[in-house]
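Regression report. Comparing outputs from two consecutive submissions.

Submission 1:
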Amino acid sequence: MSDAYTSLLDLGVVNDPTQIHVAANTAAYMAALSSASDAFTLVHPEGLTVYLDAIKIAAPVSLIINGTIYLADAQNASVFTIESGNVYISGTGTINGNASKQTGGVSTIVGGIVSNISTTNSTSPLSAITPITYDNVHISGITITNVLMWPIALGYATNSTITGTTLTNSGKSSMFMFSAIGCSFDNNTVYSIQDTGFTFYQGANQCTANNNTIHECSGGIYVQDLNGVSSPNQSITIMGNHVYNNTGNGIALTTGGTVTFQQQQHVNIYGNMLYNNNTAGTVGNGSINIQSSRGIMVHGNNIFGDGSTSTSGGKSYGIYVDSLSSFISVNTNTIGDIGARTGSAVNYGTGTSAYAIYTGQGTGIYIDSTPNCLIGSNCLYNTVGALGVMLYGIDGTLVASSIITGNNFLGVISSGGSANNIPTT
């Protein structure tokens, strides 16, 4: 991109914090984007606040946003729709989706920055009918907030990055999706999203999510396909993230519907800090949840404190692996204090030997008849001892092709539980 810089104030855009000049500012903004291209870098300066109709970016451009952009009332569309490669959006400013003034609903696309979405059904975005791959889309530094749906959703992107952004107070997960290749979501802060913090969705390949902080969402980082009909998500690295205080799973590989094949493949999950996830106490959720997956490495993660924060709630798992997955390695993780003394209780024993087991007490690692699975060299612990929250270090059903070996339990397991509740081989 060009080393020359031009302010939008010099191209007809005026400060408009009260939404008076929407049409004129939108026209000036679109003309500036069209004329900038490789000629100059466009600057939205600090202190400039505008309300804009939905904008399409149809040519390569470098846009620095240091001020504030609001989506104008009743647009029911995305702030920026990208229809070109070589688009660079950076800065220290804010894109505000003005969510309360948009109606949303089925068939609407109400995002912050999006590409290659044609429409939506009742649960998820749908691919463009004739998608075009956009190379080198780079978004960095900015804050995107108060968006009805996705702060960022890039379909068919290649060699693209989302770096150092803050994504918050919005309705849907930010995503790389629909065969995104070679893309990275790194060093971002995500919180207060009603959906998952970030998702690799339907056919993402050779992508990363590294060194992000994600909290107070319905989930942390997901590798997901909701309908089981797309190409697998594969060759994905999830590393060094700080994921905590989410109502659902911290990291999950999931496929919706009735699926009997392995839709998430060759994913590395390592070196992440995950704690206090599954605060809703949903049975089977926790910090790492693996379903319908193959060739997954879960190594060196620090996991603790998952479980319901209310008086109700079911069993949490630090790591869960389902029966449809295979060739899974769960090694050298440190997992402690999983679960909560919540839910209904069953009393055992009498007198000084009496104890209760609660439905909310948890398990460090649960293997659900998973074939070709290695559970080895993990450290599990329960800091409170007999009155602790973790009922089992390792639990589930072991099949002949899987191995449990070399795991260690520190501390005293909760009354009625055991460090390893299934046979080892």
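Submission 2:
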Amino acid sequence: MGKLFISFLGTGKYASCLYKLNDNIYNTDFIQETLISYYCKDWHEENERIRIFYTKETQNSPQDGILSNYSRLNEKLQKFKNVQFVLIKSGKTEDELWEIFNIVNAEIKEGDEIYLDITHAFRFIPMLSCYLLNFAKIQKNITIKHINYGAYDARDENNIAPVYELSLFDHLFDWSIALDSFNVSGKADKINNILKRKKINAIKDESDDARYDIELSKLFENIDGFSQSLHLCHKSNIHKSIEYIQKNIVQNDSLDNNPRYQIQSSLLKDIKDTFYKFPTDASNADMYLAKWCIEHNLYQQAITITQQTFLSFMQKFLNDNGFKFSDSNNVLLKQHEVESKINGAISSYCNKDDESDDTLINSIKKILVKLNNNDILKSYKELKDIRNIVNHFNESDYKISTMQHNISKYINDITNFLANLEND
């Protein structure tokens, strides 16, 4: 894993001041010298690189008629290893902006730790670099260690200028990606990873904020567990996770006004709204789960949950009407055999087939009449046919948009049917 320091050099007049970074004071004209002295003083390996990006204007604009910023900084950085000055365009056109993007991106290697200085150059250059690094986090799995700004204009009466740590910008991007992943696909792993990092720091702290970080991390471990279980249709784990989440949602009202926790506070309110809506009875809870899957584009999981929930209902319905799932020798059928008979009977009933050679299927078809709802049986059959395409990787002319629409419709039909039974 390499390390990369990135900075941009402008044409402004850089005057000497005392830059303060943590408890260290650096007397210099250039924030780059301060940051490199602090972060990169022990960098000696080939993969530990310092890159200063500059334009022709920077190179050819002498200050006070003497030396350009390029020449002055180049001289100051001779004492450090692996320093390169990289020429970029000024960014006056869209093509030039893309060229800057590509040049900087080419310097970033897989897995790099990045140290970014956004103090100088045109204001859009640091902005572009932040978006570029966010792109590289996904493309090249980099880590942003520090984002710094040397606040020359904030000097005090002793000519001391603070150096601001702005890695918050990186954290906001992480939250944006994590929330988008959760909202679109129901995956909570990225949120969980953010909170795990906060938990590591919080364990060493005894403040209320630290306690909240630990509780929140534990909660999202279970939400992540719910998400992973849902992707695998692991029913028992799904319901255990839901039960834990409902009992342990952390909502500390005293932190609602804490600016550091506004994202978490808003997120928890959404989590509450989601998990408190799960019905208490099993079939309606499972169908609510199926609809939640649809909302998060988990169509295969939604189909599986709906099919198994409806089969459970049908098995109970048949039992209540005196049907016994046993063969001619009164040997009870195994569960997969029961489900196969019910599926076969529903398909035959909806297709209006003649009597089958299978006496059990014929018996089930006669009881299906008592359900007095041919439409719900047709919805289930159609959903089952789609399930065969999806789960068995079958070829089909089914258009994706039509399939998604129909899956939603059939699941909604079955959800309403089961809900109405509970209300009767």
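Expected: both submissions complete independently.
Actual: both completed, but the second showed a warning that disappeared on reload.
Relevant detail on submission 2: Residues 72 and 159 are 21 Å apart (CA to CA).
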